[in-house]
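Note to self: keep these together.
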Amino acid sequence: MAATQPLRWHVFAITPGSESETEATAANRLAFSACAAPAAWSSGLFDCFDDCGLCCVTYWCPCITFGKVAEIVDRGATSCGTSGALYVLLASLTGCHWIYSCTYRSKMRAQYALPDAPCCDCCVHYCCEPCALVQEYKELKARGYDPEIGWHLNQERRNGGAGGVNPPGMQEMGR
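Structure:
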């Protein structure tokens, strides 16, 4: 029988004006998941053929799927286009794009306490890059994200559609 570690809670205080309640809740959820025992992936590595469209896009243009995954994993710090372009550049110049994409798999595993299964991240990306990218994409979808719309629109949806921009005020025409 495997020994289980006790769950540890890390609570982040909300300082008025520093971060919203939803960001603090997300931080608490992330801290809890990082301390919890590893959860299983929502889909298997070779379940990439379940979604034929995603499978084809990832096989022919892995930079697109990678860019979408990277934007969500980076929480919007790097755009889909930037990540995808860097992926293509590394693939074209060095052929070592799998090293770049494996770092995002490691970040995702750390964020969601996922096991490094069936083997280490670098081996998964080196041996079966398209399958790994599809698995990561599907994992984000299973966790409530829509990689198609990017990080910022996902956050807007999670906040109930409350965007950070106020509509313009009423204006009158005058001379």
